User: What shape does this take?
Amino acid sequence: MGHTASLVVLISGSGSNLQAIIDQCADKRINASICRVISNKADVKGLARAEAAGITTDVIDHTQYADRDTFDAALIEVIDQCKPDLVVLAGFMRILTEGFVTHFKGRLINIHPSLLPKYQGLNTHQRAIDAGDSEAGASVHFVTEELDGGPVIAQAKVLVEANDTAETLAKRVLTVEHGIFPAVIGWFADRRLQLDNNQVLFDQQTLSSPIQWPLAN
Assistant: This one.
């Protein structure tokens, strides 16, 4: 299997994507292991999930810092102790500073619950319904200085049904998130993914459009 990629996962909440990553690491379906899980909020379910899996956890409470720069500096310090190959934003609800993003550029990925570039920011599911979209989904992207604007690696689509609410659509999108996010981490771990001049390279080829997940056989 070769090199096992070291991950640091940042969370702010229940950590269902974190759980999917933990499970796939444990089952050896992806060649990675989680060094540390960091939350900016105490007492969230994601921390309990990590602890149950025997993973070191940290809480870095953003309200204890004067500004975003000092919070991000504290975050960098803790993450760098692990020397991770990849930093994974799994529902981390903080806008990161340019200094943070630059520090981890090319090894910082996020999942966003829309088919980017549509619906950057919040309330993605309601916005897709309101627009009359036939499809919604999730995007995994490299993080750059622009909010939800980094190059998209892969997308998973779900159909928007006539009677969908934001809640029912969110549930179906979350299900595909639990597949696509570990898959992308696995590609990164296997050194199939790189960020080069703000473009995604997959198997040494520049992607002209996001990979559609699940992959066709």
